[in-house]
Amino acid sequence: MLIMQQSHVASTVRCTYIMAANAVPKLWRIGGVFVTTMAPFYIYRRAYCSSTVTNKTPSLVLYQYQTCPFCCKTRAFLNYYGLQYQIVEVNPLSRKEIKFSKYKKVPLLKAGDVQVNDSSLITSVLRSSMILGKPVSRVLNMYPEIEFYDATNKTQVKERANKYFLMYGERSTPPLNELREEREWREWVDTHLVHTFSPNIYRTLRESWQAFQYISEAGNFNPFERAAARYFGTIMMYFIGKRIKKKYRLKEDVRQSLYDECNKWTAAIGKNRRYMGGDKPNLADLSVYGALTALEGLDTFDDMMKNTSIKKWYGSMKQCVDGHEGATDKQ
Ligand SMILES: N[C@@H](CCC(=O)N[C@@H](CS)C(=O)NCC(=O)O)C(=O)O
């Protein structure tokens, strides 16, 4: 497995920067200066992740930012099931690698000619495809797109309303309460857990500075550009982090909000289960684990490990995912 470790933290920051900036449009415009400064230095990278291949697996190409939490969660799924895939690291500014796509976010997955957008949809479609033994193109039709008006953000939105559901067809399903629990916690990752990330990563000027050290070190900067990224990015993200904290009503101490979410998760697993899926991880385990890997290497991650009950579960998950333990469990 080829891991693009050198860009790990830089991409986390880059992604949370983009997420944050989208959440705060006015500051995004200010951020344009930063974006322009950074633009030439994001490098297009390809890597091949290889593990078990099945005859049924189409050629999978994952378009991603290396440590965007949504991309991390998709990779955790692919790695756990030992699927072979190619990574295309997207330039977050030009996004030229995904010019072919109307959907402008990552992750997006190409399975042969079929494009699947959104981390949760990718997970559901691929898992359903394994369960049913049907090609991705056919399974994707089971997730119809609906369009609606989002009154909060005042935009027209296209969604696959059943994106957290798995398709079993004629096959026997696990107990319904287990399926419901798995769905609800997968949704919780997208609607609660990830919202605690940016305010924590940019919590203090020191942490924000630390994060932007990684960005500038990962890129090929001349001294002026490196300084511009460090100083401008550090300050801007510090303030954007505060806005996000307010938007999602996080606690005064944002670490506490992250700890609370982690402890909620371990409490939901309880004392009698190793994983939410029982003896083996289910899609909720993979989703929580994958999203949290985006924080690795940052102070936030170390604090989370020290101050919550998540460490043991996280360590077991790492073994399962890195060991592709789901590769024998594709049905
Ligand atoms: N619901 C999507 C969210 C994906 C998302 O927001 N991705 C961010 C990166 S962290 C992105 O691509 N933003 C680019 C942009 O909005 O311009 C998923 O789960 O995949």
From TrEMBL:
UniProt-listed PROSITE patterns: GLUTAREDOXIN_1, GLUTAREDOXIN_2, GST_CTER, GST_NTER
CDD domains, sorted: GST_C_mPGES2 (cd03197)
GO biological process, one term: prostaglandin biosynthetic process
Gene Ontology terms: cellular component: endomembrane system; mitochondrion
Domain GST N-terminal: from-to ranges: 58-144
Alphabetic keyword roster: Fatty acid biosynthesis, Fatty acid metabolism, Isomerase, Lipid biosynthesis, Lipid metabolism, Membrane, Prostaglandin biosynthesis, Prostaglandin metabolism, Transmembrane, Transmembrane helix
GO MF annotation: an example: prostaglandin-E synthase activity
EC number, UniProt record: 5.3.99.3
Domain named GST C-terminal: residues: 204-331
Catalytic activity entry: prostaglandin H2 = prostaglandin E2; prostaglandin H2 = (12S)-hydroxy-(5Z,8E,10E)-heptadecatrienoate + malonaldehyde
Localization of this protein: Endomembrane system
Pathway assigned to this chain's UniProt record: Lipid metabolism; prostaglandin biosynthesis
Enzyme class: isomerase
Topological type in the membrane: Single-pass membrane protein
Family membership: Belongs to the GST superfamily.
PANTHER family: MICROSOMAL PROSTAGLANDIN E SYNTHASE-2, PROSTAGLANDIN E SYNTHASE 2
Protein name (database record): Prostaglandin E synthase 2
Species assigned in the record: Amphimedon queenslandica (Sponge)
Gene it is expressed from: 100640624
